[in-house]
Amino acid sequence: MLKPQDVLLLLKIVARGPEPWSYSQLAWELGMSASEVHAGVRRTAESGLLHVDQGWGVPDARGLDEFLVHGVRYVWAARPGGLVMGIPTGAAAEPLASALPSTGDPPTVWPDPDGGLRGLSLEPLYKSVPVAARRDPVLHELLALVDGIRSGPDRVRDLAVRQLRKRLGTSGAGVLSQVRTLRGGGAASTSNTYQNGKEKRRLHR
Fold first, then answer.
1. Distance between CA atoms of residues 188 and 135, nearest Å
2. Residues 132-146: tens digit of each pLDDT
3. Tell me, which fold does domain 4-74+190-204 have in CATH?
4. Which of 39, 65, 122, 172 is most buried, most CB within 10 Å of its CB?
């Protein structure tokens, strides 16, 4: 059975693009233990969301799309709570923040004493999400989009779905070009990497 940290793991692999990674490196970047990463890889592979073959692993873009768009908000629903200091997420974070008109409502944030924004508390998918998001702005955007889907009103959810699909390569835009553009590395020459599985990254043990 999938756990919420497995979504964090899959989104991290998407955010990294074609870069190889070790379990220990991924564990540090996610604020998790190496054993948690191993367990997450096993669960996501068993669920069909991660294809692993002879040490290579590729997220199933369409399966991940279906799960994030139609499943996460029911399995791990989130509702804003009280006012706290934290890190912006959902409609308060990019790429949604600049695409939506201001409503005057308090922003949604992951509770974090070191966060720089006061807003309505939104429980993250996993306890280490704030740490992982600080270490990777691309991952932060992916997590914020998922929060927009699982907690936002229809207008926010619809935009979050469109933006997420661009990044997963399930709406005609390849994940590599999205990730490299976000990281300032320019456009990629290969699109739909996770969808067609032509490029794979090694899962170093």
1. 23
2. 999 999 999 999 999
3. Arc Repressor Mutant, subunit A (1.10.10)
4. 122
In the chain, the amino acid numbered 140 is H
Q: Which residues contact 155 (CB under 8 A, 6 or more apart)?
A: 100
> What is the structure's pLDDT at 171?
83
Domain ranges of the chain: 4-74+190-204, 77-166
The one-letter amino acid at 32? M
**What is the residue whose two structure tokens read 């308060």?**
92
Low-confidence ranges of the chain (pLDDT < 70): 53-57, 172-205
Q: Where are the beta strands (DSSP E) in 19-178?
A: 21-22, 50-53, 56-59, 83-88, 108-111, 117-121
Helices (DSSP H) in 113-189: which residue ranges? 129-135, 137-151, 154-168, 175-182
Q: Give CA separation, 120 vs 6, 76, 90, 108, in Å.
A: 25, 18, 11, 5
